[in-house]
Amino acid sequence: MPTLQKTFQLKPYPRGFNLIETEIEDNMPELKDIKAGIAHFFIHHTSAGLTLNENADPTVRGDFERHFNKMVPENMDYYQHTQEGPDDMPAHIKASLLGSSVSVPIQNGKLLTGTWQGVYLCEHRNHAGSRKITITVMGN
Amino acid sequence: MPTLQKTFQLKPYPRGFNLIETEIEDNMPELKDIKAGIAHFFIHHTSAGLTLNENADPTVRGDFERHFNKMVPENMDYYQHTQEGPDDMPAHIKASLLGSSVSVPIQNGKLLTGTWQGVYLCEHRNHAGSRKITITVMGN
Amino acid sequence: MPTLQKTFQLKPYPRGFNLIETEIEDNMPELKDIKAGIAHFFIHHTSAGLTLNENADPTVRGDFERHFNKMVPENMDYYQHTQEGPDDMPAHIKASLLGSSVSVPIQNGKLLTGTWQGVYLCEHRNHAGSRKITITVMGN
Fold first, then answer.
1. What is the pLDDT at residue B76?
2. List of chain A residues with pLDDT < 70
3. Collapsing DSSP states into helix, strand and coil, what is residue A121?
4. ipTM exceeding the 0.95 mark
5. Phi then psi for B81, rounded to 5 degrees?
6. Which residues of chain C does B104 touch, with a Cβ-Cβ cutoff of 8 Å?
7. What pLDDT sits at residue B55?
8. How far, in Å, CA of B40 to CA of B92, rounded?
9. What is the pLDDT of residue C4?
10. How many angstroms away from the CA of C36 is the closest CA of chain A?
11. Do A114 and B45 touch (CB under 8 A)?
């Protein structure tokens, strides 16, 4: 089977941790034809990331935002890359801590995520606009 | 070659960083037939993760646990997701910092890890029980 | 198409965050024949990592180094794995925070990275020497 690949824009999300699994699945209906494989989700940016985490309780996503802001604070005196605003350099660091891609097994036409796993867009900029994603699906 | 895929339960591990490479290899004997490819290990949970790190000295794994407990402490006053106990919200954050999958090249039937690289189950809950893993192998 | 796979040594880089995308592309000219797929870059070490981040302003890479040294300090009193020097245990932790691989979509013979995305070698040891990388390319 040829590799399936699609690049598209997410709708804009606010700063914080946002569930995007439904939006991703809507953009890749061909998933349903894959018996076994891997879906790779990739974000084309360096100030936002992707991760998998709890998909039910919104306070989890709020706690992520609050903790990341403490672990990677704004306005540290050692930041030299400051010309794009106080949220910019922390956004780069958070993006690499979380990563620019997640990959998930596909089985019988569905993402084989756990019951509580959802795909997060980790948006670290205050005013980012729409983000670009590429989905690549390999399998049979 | 069709995609190889297998889902199974790990035996339960205590909180901390645990070497699971032998257990993973025992569950995927078909690896030996792959000349070149990728093995993808995926955990179906949001309070435990997978990573690759040093496989020889157990104090490395202890230092990981001690440092992660400092970097992502329990009982922070800004945590709102607290109903499942003080270890729960830190477990979610640690899981995303480390990631829910690792992928490793396969060459001539073997995982092409470095001499000192082993697969860690990063177990962040106090009493988690068995964790579910899916291995997906793609290649020729 | 068979899986493309190549293992090679990077030239040595100093401690810190170093752009290596050109060196990686020079080692995998076969990329240009792939219409759609995934390139997987893997580092065979536990005290250095790979990530994608901003490829233009060198102060970003300096801020990464300064922030990681604060988030994962040397000489913490709870480190027990100390026999290889004060930079060693922090190097292991940083390596897992950033990860041992990055994977990037390939489209029409090119890495489909964003305008500002470059591949970083995250070198956490003071005197590491050359690091070993394996590139695996799957696709059509």
1. 98
2. 1
3. strand
4. yes
5. -90, 80
6. 42, 101
7. 97
8. 21
9. 95
10. 6
11. yes
